[in-house]
Write a structure and sequence with these properties.
heterodimer; A: about 120 residues; mainly beta; four-stranded antiparallel beta sheet; 11 strands; B: about 110 residues; globular
Amino acid sequence: DTGVSQNPRHKITKRGQNVTFRCDPISEHNRLYWYRQTLGQGPEFLTYFQNEAQLEKSRLLSDRFSAERPKGSFSTLEIQRTEQGDSAMYLCASSQQTGAGDIQYFGAGTRLSVL
Amino acid sequence: AQSVTQLDSQVPVFEEAPVELRCNYSSSVSVYLFWYVQYPNQGLQLLLKYLSGSTLVKGINGFEAEFNKSQTSFHLRKPSVHISDTAEYFCAVSGVTSGSRLTFGEGTQLTVNP
C-alpha cells in the first residue's frame, strides 16, 4: 500500500493554458474524489467516482473542468483555459465503499499557480 | 446539505498544555463526523471519526472527540500537546444518506510553543 499518489506536485501555467493532473488511488479502493483547497480554507468537494462512473459533480466544477477515471483505476482532472482564480491546491482522495462513512485517504495534492 | 463551522481559526498553546478545537455542524440529515490533520506540504490524515455508538471517540496521537447531538458539536481535545502537534486541523461531515462527499470546515491552525 503506497498511498494515494498525485502528479505533478506543483504546476505553474499561464492564463489560458490547459493543465492536466493525475491521481493514482490506493489499489483496492473503488471510490475516488477530487477536492480543491484555496489558501486559508478547507477543501471543497469537486467530484467523485465509483469505479469508472462519475456519480456526483459539484457546482464548483465549471464547464472548463473535466475529470475521468477510464478504467476505474487512476483519474485525471483537466482544466481548460485556466484562469487566475483556478490557482489552488487540488487534492485527490480514495476510499473503499463500506456503506457507512467511508474513510477517505488523501494524496499530498497538486498545487496549481496560474500566472 | 451540510455545513461546518470551526469556531477558532488559530489556537496558540504552550507545550504540555491541554487543547480543545471546536467544531459545530449543521445538517438536515444524520451525519458522520471526522477530524483530519494537515501538516505543511502534506495531504490530510485522518485523526478520528464518529459513525455511531459511543459519543466519545479516540483517535491517533492521543486525540479524542465527543459527539454532542443536541449541540451539533464535535470538539477535538488533547490533554497534553507536543510541539509536533503544530498543524492545521479540519473538521468534516458527510451525510449518512447523501453519499460520501465530505464537507469541511475552514480549519484551525494549532501552534504549540515551547
